[in-house]
Amino acid sequence: MEKSSRNRAPLYSAGKAVRNALRRLGSRWRWAARSEPLSRNFGFDRGTPIDRHYIELFLGSHAHRIAGRVLEIGDATYSRRFGVEAVSQQEVLHVHPGNPVATIVGDISDPLTLEDAAFDCIILTQTIHLIYDMKAALLQIRRALKPGGVLLLTAPGITPLDQYEWQTTWYWSLSPIALQRLVDEVFGSGSSQFSNYGNFYAASAFIDGAALEEVNMHKLTGYDPVFPVIVAACATKMPAAVNESARS
Question: Domain residues of the chain, as ranges?
């Protein structure tokens, strides 16, 4: 009996180690009073950033609008994922030369960067806050949309700041009312649908740098207006006749 117990001891220790490892892998994020966050890179170094969950929820809810000639910033990831075969012509804009997938290079707020009435859909995720004159950028985007075309826009609410590529151009974080006022001033009141995402759990985990794979997904549901992580708008460029009748 004593020999049998000794023989089982290494197996028990090994099994305990495996169980502990699995427990760590499957653990849910819990806030702890640390002096440093889990990640200083939005959780990218741990998995999928939490804000991506909300961005993709928003784009998924408007996937039917991602069609025709589509412009996306940086790459075409979301156009391919949500537009699928409805995208007839894909364009990618990047502010700096050297991006191998970019078909347009330039500042989106520069009138010379985009053609007039060229796009059916523009996907502008997590970009507008990197432009100091946000209204100027939105005016150029509206000009570049075809009548009836849509802008799918997301912006950070409660968020850490970037300390890498965009450190010197991260100007803004937007509240829901700020985004609504900004978009309404450019596209006209009543031409846009607004969506906001986040709650205390999501905001706390996101600031801490926890990844999506580490959190309780169920706790990400439910919106608390005090803790918006992502603010979003689907803005439609109304035809000129509609705009004129709205003013009269």
Answer: 45-247
